[in-house]
Amino acid sequence: MGMFKRSKKSDRPGQVFGNPELAALVAQGTDLIGQLGNAHMTWGLGSADRWGLDQTTGLMTWTFPDKTATAPAQLIGSYNPSAGSWMWAWANESILPEMSRDSDLVREWASAHGHPELAEPVIDADDQMAAMLGALALRVTAATGFYRGTGSASIPFITFGAVTLTSHDGTTSNFGIELEIP
């Protein structure tokens, strides 16, 4: 059975990343998600009235009562809780190829580093597994922003870059993070 196939109900998603290299990357990615989340909260990440992703422009937008925030974004994958699965963005026909470049980077990395199970289009997943796959993708792509969307049928995992803040009076400022990743 493949690394991501669960043979018994007692198998835990955390056991999938028993490989030391993968476990280290997931731990680093999880740590980065926390650090990036704390940094991005300073402009309001997590408190927007609404958010959206425009595939034609490649921009993610968060709307607040007094401003908007925009950033170039990439779809990494989506988690479907009811199906118990994760689908990489590169495998999703409804996602434009230019919006799944980072997802494709993860697939290329997985193939080059001997982890073909990570290059499967759809992977059995629960919430914990989806979080680990998102953390791995963040670490591999070295993105400077991470957003787990909302939804009931499908939950998108998105990475993003430098944020432009535009207040309602038209003034803009930029928020960027430079990472030093080992």
Explain how this protein is built:
With 182 residues, the protein is of the alpha+beta class. Helix content is 26%, strand content 27%. The chain has three helices and nine strands; from the N terminus they run H-E-E-E-E-H-E-H-E-E-E-E. Strands 1, 2, 3, 4, 5, 6, 7, 8 and 9 form a nine-stranded antiparallel β-sheet that branches. Helix 1 packs across helix 3 and helix 2 (101-112) packs across helix 3. It is globular and about 50 Å long.
Summarize the model shown.
Helices cover 26% and strands 27% of the residues. With 182 residues, it is of the alpha+beta class.
List the SSEs and their pairings.
Blueprint: H1 20-40, E1 50-54, E2 59-63, E3 67-80, E4 85-88, H2 101-112, E5 122-124, H3 127-141, E6 146-148, E7 155-160, E8 163-167, E9 172-175
Antiparallel strand pairs: 1-2, 2-3, 3-4, 3-7, 3-8, 4-5, 6-7, 8-9
